Amino acid sequence: MISAGVLILLFVAFQLWGTGLRTGASQSAGLAEFQAKQAEASRAPRGTTSTVPTTIGTTASVAPTAPPTTGVAQPVTSDIAPPKPGEPIGVITIPKIGAEFVSFEGVDLNYLSKGPGHFPGTPFPGQAGNAALAGHRTTWAAPFNRIDELEPGDQIQIETVQGKFHYEVLPQLGPTPDTTIGYRIVQPSQTEILDQPAGQNLLTLMACHPKYSAAQRIVVVAKLVEPPAPTTEKSEESKAATQTPDQEALIGATDAGELFSNNPEDRGPAALWSFVAAVVWLAAWVIARRWPSWKNWQRWTVYGAGLPLFIVPLFFAFEHINHLLPAGY
Asked: pTM for the full model?
């Protein structure tokens, strides 16, 4: 029972902090890939400085700044392939809550574990229409952990290969209108948050609500400050990814019970890595008790030596088990 309790506590620690290690690695790789795409762009936006934050995937304190004057964003050249699901689309910065994250195409669970995900059925940020992003609030580095602190007028910046774009948070008029808050709470079935209002250039941020629950959704909507960038073509893979099971569960589910991971392919790896971890610990236990004459310090030395060999497969086992549980958006 004690061993089972320790394993459960280790799994909780993995969810709260271990997942962030994975996201951090994905953020570093995503930033490098995004910078490479920027380098491929033939023309940079006029009147802007194309810089990307060097500290990505964090929620460190960032002082709010007024949006600089920008020129007209340019279309990307035909030589730049449109992003496929899982590829970076840009960097989102929210000064009010100190968040800077690379954003990726797609909102399936494996993409959201990398950072904020872009709904493939909506325009890209900075372009005309309502661009929508989803992100975690409690695990996987929790990029949208504090979006409930946003207020009307707060700034959100997104940089893509077309340039920098600045959004201003709008008052969120929910069932009980309050023009002083920058968010509203909706039900999972309210797909209208992805609608495309005519003539409006918006950015919609969405995450599950309340924290540690998937019962509802928290939504922040901001308007584009400068003129929109030219609309670009999407990849065939993105066009086909607008109705994935994960996306339908995230937006469109009639109750929280529908929000389950749809990754049955993780069952095999979860069982395999769990078995490897169990074998490693069993081997350490057998070796420590093989010689009755050994003293306690000698046995604990064996356990100490086996611990790193046990933690590595346990980490991978927890990662796959986490994908099989109700999604903690």
From this structure: 0.83
